[in-house]
């Protein structure tokens, strides 16, 4: 039984706690959050778990084997290094860091230990998206020529969230960048267009609508369509196209019931509300993969280098959307101390 600490008792911490509680090989030992009351509420969901207000207590705890870091992004780097120094395995939420220089310093300090850190690109573990990856790798549709990813949130985030998010490409599209690279391989160029349709977004210097085109080293092209707001709900679709056919993942609804009548036909339930519901199975599978890596000693993936590559794409998209020009990347550039699992 692996003993898990969760840092951050907010929305994502609750999601991870549910996955830990449901896993037969894991036990929640500690919940850390500066808001001790929030940490206590989450700890109370698991018999034997305790709450602390200082994450340093997690790293000093002898009964913690692994740490899930769901704190605000600015705390990720010091918490990753502290956990590694304590001999604890790490699952850290995306993005690892918003500043590339700080991320590189973290990779340098971690060295080979960086391979013990898994980055929370949970969509790789979604059953439908994972099947697309497996079937593309098996050659079912031939070489991947076009990849189209649509990701639209049901409602815009609060203004306070926007201020520290790093922008739409680093906060939202970064999941899609990882998925595109996972399927296409390394990316040679990025061309993005961003539009601000809401005064709040414009005031934050951000975009709420974005379309990004990625050109892969091997010639495949990905188009990523993002919106911070969608009247139809949490819109999550993907199509992989090749010379032998295509593979599609559509939107998920609570049931498969379709209504037909005088008012219309094929009427379905609204899409699953948000990422917590749509990707619930992905979070569970992600945790299982992480715990298996800890148990077996096999390095987990996605890795910190995958996190760095995704941030590189997000930075390039931000530059492209700001300047109106495509950005060419050194697709072969890597950092020492961490491998990629793309």
UniProtKB/TrEMBL annotation:
<feature type="domain" description="Gfo/Idh/MocA-like oxidoreductase N-terminal">
    <location>
        <begin position="2"/>
        <end position="121"/>
    </location>
</feature>
<dbReference type="InterPro" id="IPR055170">
    <property type="entry name" value="GFO_IDH_MocA-like_dom"/>
</dbReference>
<dbReference type="GO" id="GO:0000166">
    <property type="term" value="F:nucleotide binding"/>
</dbReference>
<dbReference type="InterPro" id="IPR036291">
    <property type="entry name" value="NAD(P)-bd_dom_sf"/>
</dbReference>
<protein>
    <submittedName>
        <fullName>Myo-inositol 2-dehydrogenase</fullName>
    </submittedName>
</protein>
<dbReference type="GO" id="GO:0006740">
    <property type="term" value="P:NADPH regeneration"/>
</dbReference>
<dbReference type="GO" id="GO:0016491">
    <property type="term" value="F:oxidoreductase activity"/>
</dbReference>
<comment type="similarity">
    <text>Belongs to the Gfo/Idh/MocA family.</text>
</comment>
<dbReference type="Pfam" id="PF01408">
    <property type="entry name" value="GFO_IDH_MocA"/>
</dbReference>
<dbReference type="Pfam" id="PF22725">
    <property type="entry name" value="GFO_IDH_MocA_C3"/>
</dbReference>
<keyword id="KW-0520">NAD</keyword>
<feature type="domain" description="GFO/IDH/MocA-like oxidoreductase">
    <location>
        <begin position="131"/>
        <end position="248"/>
    </location>
</feature>
<dbReference type="GO" id="GO:0005737">
    <property type="term" value="C:cytoplasm"/>
</dbReference>
<dbReference type="InterPro" id="IPR000683">
    <property type="entry name" value="Gfo/Idh/MocA-like_OxRdtase_N"/>
</dbReference>
<keyword id="KW-0560">Oxidoreductase</keyword>
